[in-house]
Amino acid sequence: MIKKISKLKSFSKTIIAPADKSITQRAILFSSLAQLSTKTIISNALLGLDCLSTIECVRQLGANVAIDNAKNIVEVTAGSIKNATLNVGNSGTAMRLIMGALAGQKGYSFTIDGDSSIRKRPMARVSELLEKMGAKVILSNDKYAPISIQGTNLIGQNLTMPIASAQVKSAVLLAGLFAKGTTSITEPTKSRDHTERLLQYFDVPVEISGNTAKITQAIIKPKNTHIVGDISSAAFSLVLAACIKNAKVLVKNVGLNPTRCGILDVLNQIGASVSVQNVRHDYESFGDIKLEYNSNLLPFCIQGDIVVRLIDEIPILATLACFIKGTSIIKDASELKVKESNRIDTVFDMLSAMGADIEKTTDGMVIHGTGKLAGGAKINTNGDHRIAMAAAVTGAASDSGVEIVGAECANVSYPKFYDMFN
Question: How far apart are CA 43 and CA 70, in angstroms?
């Protein structure tokens, strides 16, 4: 699909944030692993492509899943595990978490595969930790999907991750659910903790101490779950309002998990007129975010521990940097290379084509913002939903708009994204 986005002369909207993709996928998977025949009702579920892939995977594994598309409700009834060949599509979250969930299913065999993009994403960082627990995992070329897993008895271990990753951490914790003894996982910086929060909500005894999470063998006892809005999706409308003169936006029901709110820290640091309102608390906190245009934003430097709290927002923050006068720097973000695309390359290519003065580095980029962009380019998304959405925002704020090839990939995380430009 080719989508043309024209320059927006004004932008003033109230938007309901789409449901959080990370939490929706976890709620579906965890509910499918629960006590046999228990039913979980997941409301405000995201029904994007990644979540639909996760639903199909748990069905193949024996769960019964009913979807109410009109109400965004998913009902998951846990079933008996069975041998399965799974296709996760483009979802790295599904692949990595399912690896952990299946490693301890003794006596069962599984194959996990996905699309051409997922076959390029590294999976050894998961398999190596699972193998220390006794898992039998075979990767293609010792690195990639397709993946074969022979379920076996696992033994809990004290494990350490060299690179912070919520997906890798979650895989280990799910393996620990089915392992003898105690499993702990320590990461150098605390990554998003949706897995820990949701497992605790489902009565699984997960202990947290600093950057270490600890779990013992347990049975998931799911509860009906309401999914909060996705701050990574909200980021696109927030940046759009920050780039268009006199614009303003109110994004409602946004998840405010402190391990995901790095973008709010950056917006505050650069002097954006942003505020958080109507904060409510459940297993995840959520609220409304208001932002009004401010012409005096300061350039920024993103580095160190904050990177893991906004890794998915870096493409759209790079766009924001173009509309701020001065040099902004993004570093310590080599994890961008192993996302749905190499996002250092794809962000550079996209913004360069739109007229940005940008340099690639080994672990990020340097952007010399001028306060405006010419735009007018044709951008290929390379199948990466965040590149598609960043390109659309860039075009809407630029002088000559943008033409996006492969624009449909935005449906992975934000099915109604392009309505924002109407």
Answer: 11
List active site positions: 312
Sheet holding 273-281, edge to edge: 12-16, 248-255, 285-292, 273-281
**Looking at the whole model, is its pTM more than 0.70?**
yes
Give residue limits of the domains in the chain.
2-19+228-421, 21-226
DSSP β-bridge partners for residue 52: none
Start-to-end C-alpha separation, the chain = 18
pLDDT per residue over 93-132, tens digit each? 999 999 999 999 999 999 999 999 899 999 999 999 999 9
Residue 62: pLDDT band by 50, 70, 90 thresholds? very high
What is the token pair recorded at 35? 């006590």
Q: How far is CA 349 from the centre of its chain?
A: 22
pLDDT in tens, 134-185: 999 999 988 999 999 999 999 999 999 999 999 999 999 999 999 999 999 9
For domain 2-19+228-421, the CATH architecture is: Alpha-beta prism (3.65)
Buried b (16+ CB within 10 A) or exposed e, 307-341: bbbbbbbbbbbbbbbbbbeeebbbbebebbebbbb
**Which CATH architecture is the domain 21-226 placed in?**
Alpha-beta prism (3.65)
DSSP H helices, 178-295, are 194-201, 231-243, 262-269
Residue 338 has pLDDT above 90, yes or no: no
Same topology between domain 2-19+228-421 and domain 21-226: yes
Rounded to 10 deg, the angle between the 166-177 and 92-103 helix axes is: 20
Does an H or E element contain 389, and which? helix 385-397
